[in-house]
From TrEMBL:
Transmembrane stretches, start-end: 59-80, 87-104, 116-144, 165-186, 192-214
Protein name: DUF3159 domain-containing protein
A UniProt-annotated Pfam family: DUF3159
Natural source organism: Streptomyces luteosporeus
Start and end residues of each stretch annotated as Disordered: 1-22
Length: 242
């Protein structure tokens, strides 16, 4: 048995199904999606926009207030030395929507960039699953330090990632199926309040299903640890030969 195979067996014994596996999966999901705080930060600016617009009927005031709040939330993440991707992704999304709404003069356009992103993401999840490269695996693989080993060496995890990607894709498609008719035929306040209501629950459901699928899957293969073990074995062999 090679040193790499031994390392893989050691990893499997060190990561049994149960509390440790579930905790590792939970930590990875929080890192990937920003946790509850990230969900709230993506929802609150939209809530501020629709609340102010409902009262004032002024696109500029509502958009500036939402953008200002998003900047404050982003700065708070930076001050707390949080991950930069969570600090800036929300700010850019809100900024794009705010500028689009103010330039077009239509308050509904504040939500359009996010809606298009959601629809595109849903298509990406489904298409990647059909292609054999489920997007959830591409997102979480590096976090679990398994990279793409799940595709060829850990079929149980590939199945779990595929199921999770299908879950995300279908849930986001359902969300889009509700929002786009409101964008076309409803008014800005209807669209805004429904979008706020659909902000956190679908994501929580998606994350929960992902956690369920991965918690029941085989443990990840730590390819970084394998490479380190192989390099160590090579150095030991060279030292013995010398």
């Amino acid at each position: 048995m090679s040193s790499i195979d031994k390392m893989t067996d050691q990893q499997a014994s060190q990561h049994p199904h149960g509390t440790d596996s579930r905790a590792a999966t939970e930590a990875a999901l929080f890192e990937a999606f920003g946790g509850v705080r990230g969900m709230v930060e993506t929802t609150v600016p939209g809530l501020v926009f629709v609340a102010i617009y409902t009262v004032k009927r002024d696109i500029h005031i509502a958009a500036i207030a939402a953008l200002g709040l998003s900047l404050v939330l982003g700065i708070a993440r930076l001050v707390g030395r949080d991950t930069l991707k969570h600090a800036f992704s929300g700010v850019f999304g809100v900024a794009f929507g705010a500028v689009f709404a103010m330039m077009s003069g239509d308050a509904k356009n504040f939500y359009l960039p996010g809606m298009l992103y959601t629809l595109g993401l849903a298509i990406a999840y489904i298409a990647s699953s059909l292609a054999g490269y489920p997007l959830m695996g591409l997102i979480l693989g590096p976090i679990f330090k398994e990279n793409l080993s799940w595709r060829t060496r850990n079929p149980g995890r590939k199945v779990a990632y595929t199921k999770a990607s299908w879950a995300w894709g279908l849930i986001l498609l359902a969300k889009s199926a509700i929002l786009f008719p409101l964008y076309w035929w409803g008014d800005a306040t209807q669209l805004g309040w429904v979008k706020v209501a659909l902000g956190i629950p679908p994501m929580l459901l998606s994350v929960y299903l992902t956690w369920i699928f991965l918690s029941k899957a085989p443990p990840p293969i730590d390819v970084f640890a394998e490479m380190e073990a192989a390099e160590r074995a090579e150095r030991e062999a060279q030292a013995e030969a010398g």
